[in-house]
Amino acid sequence: MYKLIGKNSYLVYHREMEYLFVALEQLAPNGVNQNIGKVYGAKKEVATAGKFRWLFEVFQSMKKDFSMGMLEFFMNYDIEKFTLKGYEEYLVSLPKEEFLRIYFQSISKEEILTAIHSETGEQEFFEKHPDLFSQYIAFQFFFQDTKNLIHMFFTFVESLKNEAAEQYLDSQQSTIEAEMNVIIQELKTKEPFSYSEELMGKNCYNRGPYKTFYFIPSVFFPVLFCRVFEKDQFLFYDFQRLREKKQNIPEQLKAMADNTRYRILLLLNKEEHLTGVEIAKKMKLATSTVSHHMNALRDSGLVHEEPVGSTKCYSISKRTIQNCIKVLQDTFLQ
Predict the structure, then answer these.
(1) pLDDT given at position 45
(2) Distances in whole angstroms, Cα of residue 326 to Cα of each of 64, 75, 188, 265, 316
(3) Helix (H), strand (E), coil (C) string for the chain
(4) What mean pLDDT comes out for the span 57-69?
(5) pLDDT: is 199 or 43 the higher one?
(6) Residue 132 has pLDDT above 80, yes or no
(7) Cross-strand pairs, 60
(8) Is the pTM of this model over 0.85?
(9) What pLDDT band is residue 232 in, cutting at 50, 70 and 90?
(10) Record's PANTHER family (predicted)?
(11) I want to staple 1 with a disulfide (CB 3.0 to 4.6 A). Which of 6, 13, 29, 228 is the partner?
């Protein structure tokens, strides 16, 4: 489905895109979509499949979760006509340096050109960006054999199509349609950007303006949501987890029960937006310690993570906090 639902807003749902999201969840270190587990089983079993073991090793060698980099290319792709084959062909058609620049965002085109055209430049690049890859061989493959990596990724995506997944998506068709109707009704009275913030439960650091808004609900999206933006805004999200008010309550309470994470939440509530480095400085903690805690808070839905240049900015999810409080009240104080 590709439907105009407002003056500058589109509702997008392509079933083939769901398999792209499954692949991202499998490759991401922090994918948490329970529907995928129901259909495909434990992530470890998929990751150790011999045919795609090298693909998993390359992605797992990344020191940051760059799996969502595959979504950045939607900004210049005709999403109305999305097919897996068409998206693969589009990515392969891009010059290597352009693909890598968009995928990694914070790296300049000049640095990438030096890395891919000079052995010395390649080594210097790896040493200059120790936060990208833990293994030199994985870095080499990603930067030197990029087109093969893209082909391998989409071969993996295609391998995820099976009867069980199709049956599950068929069983969810009514909930998908219901979500689409909710979006259509909401945007009759709300501005698309403010509704995006309402869905995510946050105030965005980057606020546009954006020419067009794309709302892309999913059954298999790896995390709660991901906002990709430039001249347009694309909001990918796991609508079932976002809509379910009882989602992850034990996980959220567990995350808040840690004293350091609770103090981080208090700090974000006061400051609104902070980078990991700023949080570490204000709380006098090592950046690696902060990174560990931010992953736990992000995975539970208590904070939102948004790329800003070469770093990431964090903000508290007021929607999740409100939902947590409401569920506790409805459960124990009625």
Answers:
(1) 57
(2) 34, 37, 27, 18, 17
(3) CEEEEECCEEEECCHHHHHHHHHHHHHCCCCCCHHHHHHHCCHHHHHCCHHHHHHHHHHHCECCCCHHHHHHHHHHCCHHHCCHHHHHHHHHHCCHHHHHHHHHCCCCHHHHHHHHHCHHHHHHHHHHCCCCECCHHHHHHHHHCHHHHHHHHHHHHHHCCCHHHHHHHHHCHHHHHHHHHHHHHHCCCCCHHHHHHHHHCCCCCCCCCCCCEEEEEECCCCCCEEEEECCCEEEEEEHHHHHCCCCCHHHHHHHHHCHHHHHHHHHHHHHCCEEHHHHHHHHCCCHHHHHHHHHHHHHCCCEEEEEECCEEEEEECHHHHHHHHHHHHHHHCC
(4) 83
(5) 199
(6) yes
(7) none
(8) no
(9) very high
(10) TRANSCRIPTIONAL REGULATOR, ARSR FAMILY, TRANSCRIPTIONAL REPRESSOR SDPR
(11) 13
Domains defined for the chain, CATH in brackets: 1-242 (no CATH), 249-332 (1.10.10.10)
C-alpha distance across the termini of the chain, in Å: 42
Q: Considering only CA atoms, which of 26, 24, 49 is closest in space to residue 37?
A: 26
**The two three-digit tokens of residue 300, written as one number:** 């539970």
**Mean per-residue pLDDT, 245-270:** 86
Judge whether residue 260 has pLDDT over 90: yes
| 213, two tokens | 């808004």
